[in-house]
């Protein structure tokens, strides 16, 4: 069996009320799509920037996907910015919880207001 | 006309091997298109034009030799095919275009037709003045009148270049795919050998300790996982255990795995405390220029006290089996390794194994498949482990079979079972005889988790520290 081919769509949304860039991601974030997300988000990983990833329609995330998110976080955090994950599904929240990354990223559930800076 | 004379005349007319007598005018401008000349209406009338169109579309030309006149005539499509303005019928012509490597075969076929009237169908190449090489299939036959006398020789030349090019491309790509597959297979085998070299060849043997571990690679997958387990004896006679998973599925992941495994062994020899070892591995990884993430459980088992001390760095929770009851040891863990270089704490947890109690450490491949809810998969794992029986090897076998029987696994899996044997066997690694040790052969009883060293409270209701029996029971599953 070959590595399952999965799909991932990345849309730029209008900025959230704080003016941060929001990327809405749909599909599965894994070995075969990680590079796609990395490329799509690259323009937004600016010094001091803040990036919100809307994960509400990401149904699966593996360790390679997590590594991409950690990479974004490190890039942004190094320059005083940050990464925020919006509305990850239970499965992804579970993974963030086990790995402890829910304490590293700002994770916002659906309907929750953006956390104060 | 005697037959030999007719034949000689015909041979001369076809002109094979007689390029010196060639007199054709080349097109002044050569285009790159496959069929350079689209037929235009000519004096021959609508029927001839239609024939030209059909021949042009089919890449098909005809020729004819009239023994009475000694002339060869070619359909216009042949000159279009070759890319010349016209092919004079009375001179050595098409033979001059035959590829030199094919000339002998073509000549032999032509001779057989002319001399013996033996029909032929052969494939050969024509080299056009503009450098194109055409693959053609040519046929020839003798046409006789009703009395059986030779009337003419007639044949076709069919341009099959595109078809042959497509076939060659298909063969080439098939060959390249085969070569690429072979390359990948070699790489895969190298990676697997590397990975296996990183796993301990033998597990340490200790009295009273029943230990079993397995690495289940994905045979169908060309890459490898960064999963590993390790078990080794510490200088103080205790047993160090590790199960971990490196992000990625390539040589780099395998290399990082090797580094981490060796680092753990080195650090553990200096100071085996799980919190210390994981903290040092974290700093090591976070300082590497590339982002390498590792989840890992590392622990130390004291076979005298039956006490396991462990820390979890972002790894799926271990399971504790007491009799037929399995508990998920969802404890306060530390962050997965390699994210932050700061002194990330890795809280230590302790539990005491009763006779025949065991713990199962695993990597997420066994519960993490995209078609299955991970909570349900964990529940299934608990049930399989609870139903299993026997020694560590049997436990591990049952769990592997039950979990991997259905559905397609997506990742490599490592499993490790540490079980306290029913009866202590052999010598003890330490002279210390703790007063609260279970006597050999005691009936299975509940594990006695002792207080966790770390006072860090659980930050989340979902995390239950195993620092007293009530909490362990709260997390118990069956």
Brief rundown of the structure:
The complex is a heterodimer of chains A (117) and B (478). Chain A contains three helices and five strands.
Please characterize this protein's 3D structure.
- The complex is a heterodimer of chains A (117) and B (478).
- Chain A is α/β, with parallel strands linked by helices and 117 residues long.
- Chain A contains 3 helices and 5 strands, in the order E-E-H-E-H-E-H-E.
- A 5-stranded mixed β-sheet of chain A has the order 1-2-3-4-5.
- In chain A, helix 1 (34-41) runs parallel beside helix 2 (63-78).
- Chain B is of the alpha+beta class.
- Chain B has helices spanning 3-14, 46-58, 76-82, 103-116, 161-198, 251-270, 274-287, 374-387, 392-405, 469-474, and strands at residues 60-66, 71-74, 120-127, 133-144, 150-159, 209-216, 226-233, 239-246, 294-302, 307-313, 319-322, 325-328, 349-352, 358-362, 413-420, 476-477.
- In chain B, the strands form 3 sheets. Chain B has a 6-stranded antiparallel β-sheet.
- The model of chain B is unreliable at 15-37 and 426-478 (pLDDT under 50).
- Classes of the chains: A alpha/beta (117), B alpha+beta (478).
- The interface between A and B is medium-sized, with 26 and 33 residues.
Mean pLDDT of chain A: 83
Largest sheet of chain B: 6 strands, antiparallel
Task: Kindly provide the radius of gyration of chain A, computed on alpha-carbon positions and rounded to a whole number of angstroms.
Answer: 13 Å
Strand line-up in the sheet with most strands of chain B? 6-15-14-11-12-16
Unreliable stretches of chain B (pLDDT < 50, length at least 5) are 15-37, 426-478
Q: Quickly count the helices of chain B.
A: 10
Largest interface: A-B, 26 and 33 residues
Mean pLDDT of chain B: 77
Number of strands of chain A: 5
């Amino acid at each position: 069996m070959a590595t399952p081919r999965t799909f991932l769509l990345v849309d730029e949304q209008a900025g959230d009320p704080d003016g941060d860039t929001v990327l809405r991601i749909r599909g599965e974030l894994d070995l075969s799509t990680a590079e796609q997300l990395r490329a799509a988000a690259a323009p937004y990983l600016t010094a001091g920037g803040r990036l919100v990833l809307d994960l509400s329609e990401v149904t699966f995330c593996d360790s390679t996907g997590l590594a991409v998110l950690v990479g974004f976080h490190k890039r942004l955090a190094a320059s005083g910015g940050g990464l925020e994950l919006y509305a990850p599904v239970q499965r992804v929240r579970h993974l963030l919880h086990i790995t402890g990354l829910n304490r590293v990223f700002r994770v916002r559930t659906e309907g929750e207001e953006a956390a104060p800076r | 006309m005697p037959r030999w004379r007719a034949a000689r005349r015909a041979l001369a007319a076809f002109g094979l091997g007689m390029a010196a007598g060639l007199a054709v005018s080349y097109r002044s401008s050569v285009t790159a298109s496959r069929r350079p000349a689209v037929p235009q209406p000519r004096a021959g009338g609508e029927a001839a034009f239609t024939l030209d169109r059909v021949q042009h579309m089919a890449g098909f030309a005809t020729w004819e030799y009239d023994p009475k006149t000694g002339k060869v005539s070619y359909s216009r499509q042949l000159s279009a095919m070759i890319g010349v303005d016209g092919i004079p019928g009375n001179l050595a012509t098409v033979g001059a275009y035959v590829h030199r490597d094919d000339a002998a075969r073509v000549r032999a076929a032509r001779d057989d037709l002319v001399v013996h009237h033996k029909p032929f169908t052969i494939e050969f190449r024509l080299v056009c003045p503009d450098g194109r090489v055409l693959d053609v299939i040519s046929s020839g036959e003798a046409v006789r009148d009703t009395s059986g006398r030779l009337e003419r020789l007639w044949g076709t030349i069919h341009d099959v270049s595109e078809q042959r090019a497509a076939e060659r491309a298909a063969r080439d790509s098939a060959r390249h795919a085969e070569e690429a597959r072979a390359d990948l297979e070699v790489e895969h085998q190298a990676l697997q050998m590397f990975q296996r070299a990183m796993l301990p060849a033998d597990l340490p043997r200790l009295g009273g300790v029943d230990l079993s571990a397995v690495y289940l690679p994905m045979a169908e997958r060309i890459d490898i996982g960064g999963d590993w387990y390790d078990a080794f004896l510490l200088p103080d006679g205790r047993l160090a255990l590790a199960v971990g998973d490196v992000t990625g599925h390539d040589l780099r992941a395998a290399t990082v795995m090797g580094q981490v495994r060796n680092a753990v062994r080195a650090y553990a020899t200096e100071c085996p405390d799980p919190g210390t070892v994981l903290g040092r591995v974290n700093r090591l990884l976070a300082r590497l220029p590339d982002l390498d993430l590792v989840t890992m459980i590392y622990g130390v088992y004291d076979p005298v006290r039956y006490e396991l001390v462990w820390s979890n760095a972002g790894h799926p929770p271990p399971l504790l089996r007491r009799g037929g009851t399995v508990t998920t040891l969802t404890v306060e863990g530390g962050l997965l390794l390699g994210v932050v270089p700061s002194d990330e704490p890795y809280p230590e947890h302790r539990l005491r194994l009763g006779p025949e109690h065991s713990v199962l450490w695993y990597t997420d491949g066994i519960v993490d498949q995209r078609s299955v809810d991970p909570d349900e998969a964990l529940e299934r794992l608990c049930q399989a482990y609870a139903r299993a029986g026997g020694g560590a090897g049997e436990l591990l076998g049952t769990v592997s079979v039950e979990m991997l029987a259905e559905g397609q696994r997506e990742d490599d899996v490592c499993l490790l079972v540490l079980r306290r044997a029913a009866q202590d066997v052999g010598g003890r690694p330490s002279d210390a005889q703790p007063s609260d040790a279970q006597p050999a052969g005691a009936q299975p009883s509940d594990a006695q988790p002792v207080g966790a060293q770390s006072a860090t409270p659980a930050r989340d209701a979902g995390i239950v520290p195993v620092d007293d029996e009530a909490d362990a029971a709260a997390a118990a599953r069956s």
